[in-house]
Design a protein that fits this description.
Layout: H1 2-14, E1 22-25, E2 28-29, E3 41-46, E4 49-55, E5 66-69, E6 74-77, E7 79-84, E8 89-90, E9 93-94, H2 101-113, E10 116-121, H3 129-138, E11 146-149, E12 154-155, E13 171-172, H4 176-188, E14 194-197, H5 210-222, E15 227-230, H6 234-243, E16 247-248, H7 259-267, E17 271-272, H8 277-281, H9 294-299, H10 302-311, H11 317-340, H12 360-371, H13 376-390, E18 407-410, E19 424-429, E20 432-433, H14 436-442
Helix pairs in contact: 2-14, 4-5, 6-7, 12-13
Bound molecules: zinc ion (ZN).
Length: about 450
């Protein structure tokens, strides 16, 4: 009985009723934010891929193709967020006990709902769950944003994630031998990246020492696995660059970056995730207007929205001023990196702290990148083509013949105003339109 049920499920998923090809006509398509959009476009989707793309009227659909009119709409590649921490927040509770299949899948569905095709969970995944979910997604048995995982991240004892609930997920490393062993364990699990934390949390913990992170990077590179480093201090960023880190999960935040640090980042081709949102959220005394935005409300539990709103009143002017100083440094560093031609990636760090909830804030992060001096096209490139390249997700992050049919239909053009990425009309992942109304109901 069990076997036949399972077989039925596999059949249902592996061989869906042969969906007819679909011709999407009349929309503006941003195939790649670095290039001019195709106005009044037509593109044909079949079997999860874009088969052809061109101008409306030039593309002849095959017999039996369905047509979808996208006049007045703008189509962008689905977003990719390579810095999230799934599973810890559930309604008002933020705890390792929430790291369950149901909760993680719920968050991947919220991500999909807002147009995110893939996420990288950055070193705080417990047990086998992330690997199991990914396997099911690869087999076509599970939807949501595709889950990439950095498994368990690495740090000196207590020097991993800042939040107490996240801390036990990281390795506690005291010797180079342990560090190399930890890397071998994670590589054996086929993690997408190794994550390492280098931060003293404002003097509260003893930083991961250079000998340990050098052993981690060396061992990972021997095994063809890249390393993403959490950085805070300028001096650590320089040494991590020299040590061969492949990406920084954050900006330098203690001071403005100097020419030497930028030269090192360029020389070593390090990708930088600006990761502005958590710091920006602390710079205001009044509740953010986006707390009332429909897209945010759709994916965020009501009680959580209200607790976020209430949090503003607990802030002191001194707290807010300090946060603003740090944030201005971060903004200047983004502008410097962009001006220098460094590869600016994307990462919203959703779930890293309580009440910094998944999905909507990926869109919010784009707006902050633009406020820091990036153009809408640069921000959009970071969250699509650059992030796909970073995850080695071939055929994603851009639209065009042969590419994955992962795209978001917007009511307005994000190149005019980046906040228009939130004006979502429809989301298509793997060629299928998401049933967003049903998903929305499941978030309640
Ligand atoms: Zn993080």
């Amino acid at each position: 009985m069990r076997v036949s049920c399972l077989f039925g499920l596999l059949l249902a998923v592996s061989f869906p009723l042969a969906a007819a090809p679909v011709l999407f006509e009349g929309g503006r398509v941003i195939i790649d934010a670095r290039r001019a959009p195709i106005e009044n476009s037509a593109f044909l989707v079949d079997n999860g891929r874009i088969v052809k793309i061109g101008k409306k009227g030039e593309l002849k659909p095959p017999a039996g193709a369905k047509r979808v009119d996208l006049t007045g709409k703008t189509v962008i590649p689905a977003l990719i967020d390579p810095h999230v921490h799934l599973g810890y927040q559930k309604d008002l509770s933020y705890a390792a006990a929430n790291f369950t299949r149901e909760n993680v899948i719920g968050q991947l569905n919220r991500d999909a709902y807002v147009g995110i095709a893939a996420v990288l969970s950055m070193g705080t995944d417990l047990g086998d769950l992330a690997f199991e979910i990914r396997k099911e997604q690869d087999a076509g048995k599970l939807g949501g944003a595709l889950l990439f995982t950095a498994g368990r991240g690495m740090a000196a004892p207590n020097a991993g994630p800042g939040n107490a609930e996240l801390k036990p997920s990281a390795y506690s490393l005291t010797t180079e031998t342990e560090a190399r062993q930890a890397v071998r364990e994670q590589v054996a699990r086929k993690v997408a990246f190794i994550k390492v934390w280098v931060d003293d949390r404002n003097g509260a913990v003893k930083k991961t020492p250079p000998a340990i992170y050098r052993a981690i990077i060396d061992e990972a590179h021997k095994r063809h696995t890249r390393v993403v480093a959490h950085v805070y201090y300028l001096d650590d960023a320089k040494d991590l660059a020299r040590a061969g880190a492949d990406a920084f999960a954050h900006l330098v935040r203690d001071k403005e970056m100097d020419d030497e640090s930028i030269a090192l980042i360029k020389q070593h081709k390090i990708l930088i995730m600006p990761n502005l949102g958590i710091a920006e959220a602390r710079t205001h005394v009044n509740p953010a207007p986006w707390l009332d935005e429909p897209l945010f409300r759709d994916v965020t539990p009501v009680a959580l929205v209200e607790r976020m709103r209430a949090a503003y009143s607990g802030r002191t002017p001194a707290n807010v001023e300090a946060a603003q100083r740090t944030y201005r440094t971060m903004q200047r560093n983004v502008a410097k990196l962009v001006a220098a031609g460094v590869t600016v990636g994307f990462g919203a760090d959703s779930g890293a702290v309580p009440d910094y909830f998944h999905a909507f804030i990926t869109h919010r992060e784009l707006q902050l990148m633009v406020e820091a001096g990036m153009t809408p096209a640069q921000a959009l490139t970071a969250v699509t083509a650059t992030s796909a390249d970073f995850l080695r997700l071939k055929g994603h992050g851009m639209l065009g013949a042969g590419k994955a049919a992962d795209f978001v239909v917007l009511d307005a053009n994000p190149l005019d105003d980046i906040a228009n990425t939130r004006k979502i009309s429809r989301v298509y992942l793997r060629g299928e339109e998401l049933n967003r109304a049903t998903l929305r109901g499941s978030f309640r």
